[in-house]
Amino acid sequence: MNGVSFFRSMLRIMPHSAHKFLNTTGRGWLLVSLFLGAMLSSFGVMASPSVALFYGSNPPLDELKAFDVVVVDPDQPGVAPDGYRHKNSELFAYVSVGEVQADKPYYRKMLPGWLLGDNLSWGSKIIDQSNPDWPRFFSEEVIAPLWKKGYRGFFLDTLDSYQIGAKTPEEKAAQEAGLKAVITEMKRRWPDAKLIMNRGFEILPDIHQDVWMVAAESLFRGWDARTRTFIEVSADDRTWLENQLRKAQKDYQLPVLVIDYLPPKQRQQARDTAKKIEDAGFIPYVTSPEMNSVGIGDIEVIPRKVLVIYNPHETNNVFNTEGLRFLGMPLAYLGLVPEYRSVEDALPDMPLAGRYAGIVTWLSDESSNREKYAAWLLMQVDQGVPVAIFGHFGVGSEAAMLNSLGLSYSEDPVAHDLGLVQSDPMMGFELPIQPNSSGLFPVRLSGDGKPLITLGSADGRRYTPAAITPWGGYVLDPYTVGELGGVDSSDRWFINPMKFLVAALKLDTSIPVPDFTTETGRRLMMVHVDGDGFANKAERPGYPFAGRVMVDDVLKRYQLPTTVSVIEGELSTTGLYPNDSAALEAIARDMYALPWVEAASHTYSHPFRWSEAQHGVGNNSNSAEGVALPIKNYTFNLKREIAGSAAYIDGRLTPAGKHVRILLWSGDCVPTEEALAEVSKDGLLNMNGGDTIITHSRSSWTNIAGPGLARGNYFQVFAPDQNEEIYTNLWTGPFYGYERVIETFQMTESPYRFKPIDIYYHPFAVTKAASLKALSKVYDWAKQQPVNMVYVSEYIGKVLDFNAFTVARTAHGYRLRGDGDLLTVRLPLQGPAVDLTKSTAIAGVAPGPSARYVSLTGESADLVFGTAPAHVPYIESANARLTRFERTPGGINFSLKGYQPLSLTLDQVHGCRLYDGNTLVNPTGQANDQFHYELNEHESLSLRLDCST
Length: 949
Hints:
Elements: H1 29-46, E1 51-54, H2 61-64, E2 69-72, E3 90-96, E4 99-100, E5 115-119, E6 124-127, H3 134-149, E7 153-157, H4 162-165, H5 169-189, E8 194-198, H6 204-207, E9 213-217, E10 221-224, E11 229-232, H7 235-252, E12 256-261, H8 267-279, E13 283-287, E14 296-297, E15 300-301, E16 305-310, H9 322-325, H10 328-333, E17 337-342, E18 356-362, H11 370-382, E19 387-391, H12 399-404, E20 407-409, E21 419-423, E22 443-445, E23 450-456, E24 462-469, E25 472-476, E26 481-483, E27 491-493, H13 497-504, E28 513-514, E29 518-519, E30 522-529, H14 546-555, E31 562-566, H15 568-571, H16 581-593, E32 597-601, H17 610-615, H18 638-652, E33 662-664, H19 673-681, E34 685-687, E35 708-711, E36 714-717, H20 724-727, H21 741-747, E37 757-761, H22 769-783, E38 787-789, H23 792-804, E39 806-809, E40 813-817, E41 824-828, E42 842-848, E43 851-856, E44 860-864, E45 874-878, E46 880-888, E47 891-898, E48 903-907, E49 913-916, E50 919-921, E51 925-927, E52 930-934, E53 939-946
Parallel strand pairs: 1-2, 2-3, 3-7, 7-8, 8-9, 9-12, 12-13, 16-17, 16-18, 18-19, 19-25, 30-31, 30-37, 30-38, 31-32, 32-33, 33-34
Antiparallel strand pairs: 4-6, 5-6, 10-11, 13-14, 15-39, 20-22, 21-23, 23-24, 24-25, 26-27, 28-41, 29-30, 35-36, 39-40, 40-44, 41-43, 42-43, 45-48, 46-47, 47-53, 48-52, 49-50, 49-53, 51-52
Helix pairs in contact: 3-5, 14-16, 18-19
């Protein structure tokens, strides 16, 4: 073994599905050279799949899908290929061939004579490979169950273990023959299985044709399990191993994986080691010995998740926490996905470096287990995980912790004659900084760092309530959020939260950010209707039902993709208005027959307060009147509310082929986790909640909600904007108030595009002349905007894809992987150009507010920066989804599918011609190299830009 330790952890791998297509164009001979260059470059990438290994519990599968091959422990709960499938990434199962642990189910079926001895270092039994029954037993008892679970790739470990017990050449030969029989039997039964051998150099000459990849660990950096120390591999050991690996490459044309070990916090050393392995010609992966952290290979995953810590003693509902109310939007814009955790719960004990972008805390008092929390937080700081602290440290005046953070705590009373000594430009963002001793935590930055506020007294005392530090940063009360006062007493930021988070979490703002507000270069727009008031009477002659006015005067007038829900308890014969049921259902059938209307449910009894309705005051119509509609003889039931209401709509209201896809939350829009689970079980999407209502008179980012909230294993998607009820002061007036949503749309577009446009209202919005006029004004304004219309179901898909989207750094740019719903990433307005000839699955780039919006063409893309050859055509923007895209030597071929007559802008050279099938499409406008085109149809499958002449 030459001192190189066994690769002892459980592994699993996936094949590299290289769907690289040519992404180059030009003119004349340049076209051909670029085409061939891209082809050769693509083949070079395909030859070396990226590989990750993770054996710990709760593997971060979202992040790991950036790798082509992910090796996992198949015995970990919740880990299975069927729940992971991705076009470009696949799970492989770790399998121990040479040893067995006594807790394995198949161990009890093995006979004592099948064992060769013990491996005392690992507490396992060494298997006698020479036993003639072992190959069959291994295939049936070990591999077959994994194949049934969906695994198609296997990492075969402990292939050298027999050397502990086999001493003579004859004994070794017998063991090696048995190992070869095991692999031969596997391939006989499962010819398509991909096998990765950990070492096994002695048997490789005879079975190399059955092997997909060879692996070995510790080429440069290793782990000594006996002394539990990290080691640098000696030159002799490295030379021996490298010779074996090069033989596998040269003689058998096999890719070679090398795994080295370093502590998780040594990220830069891991990058350097991975680069050395790659420069040596091997596939690198550098990780922790326990294989429970996200390591670094030829790509490096950029962590996007953050832990947001809150104190449950401050609120009994995460919806009311400052971490959700105030940080949801800034975190999302920065591309971060929050995981909200109570400070009183067990906090993660696995390595966070490489898995989380950082930790954000917002506490207003100290934790009840402050010593334990302080120790946990300091451990994360020691591991190099950035920490951003809002409000309070949560540990009281724990001097040891504060000193470790480079802070000094004063036991003396806070001085009252405070003056502002210094203030950073990121302070005073929405409220001016005023010296305030009330509630001030008396700390001073005594170590390295950058003060954001310094307050001082006449006697020389100094306080630093906000600072950026080597470990992250903090901003303490009362300088987080305050009230403006006067007529508008809404919250305002003292600090620019995005700039603070960037600085404290050490974020690289040049990294692409997945974006759910934009597609094909244009801002998204949607319309959705909650069902309340469908049975109300409009204030006009004849007093028609609001549902009828909405269908005739709004939905038929503005033929835009619209998601409309109804409340079964308003329409059905078992509901509140049985005598009107026939008329109301007829109106609903007319509505759902409109091709541009998507069906949704707004529940059966419209719970006003979900938790109380489910767990609270009672279930009969009288006692539950305050928490849901008082439907006679109804007992509250989640399945009846969700699946039952959807079945009612599908069975009585929607035409054939159209089904309810969405549950729009009612009332307080704070569903229980059980309600979210019921929606998921019923195969429905969900939306509503969030409180985005920024206007000129409420001009604070605190009034912009994030995209949603994870609740256990489920996710609630928030409505992008609020409905007319909020703008009319809960329908008390002014009834034209909803026209102010235009301010919201404008203020969430500039200076940053925080939100898509969402026209969101209830049927009762058409009952008054003023409210209907306001709604029409909103529609008319929105129709003039350069948008890309989508249904709510499509937007929900983008938000969910945002949560799981993976960005990984490569040698030349970034690898981008999602589920195919979110097809936009955002780049800074200033920065290196995107090289469209070397990038793959990139359709184009569009300018936007404070950013560039890059359009992707599928689930996986490679973004490369550089100086592209001149005159490379691309799609700048369109009002439709890009369903096909390919570069050719003579231009681009693509397809678009939208909901309005197609409108698109291409960046092209003069002389290029656009064809729709065989029909020439003339531009309707031009500005420099920007050519604008209009088509009558909503979908075109055969668009072709020809630049070959």
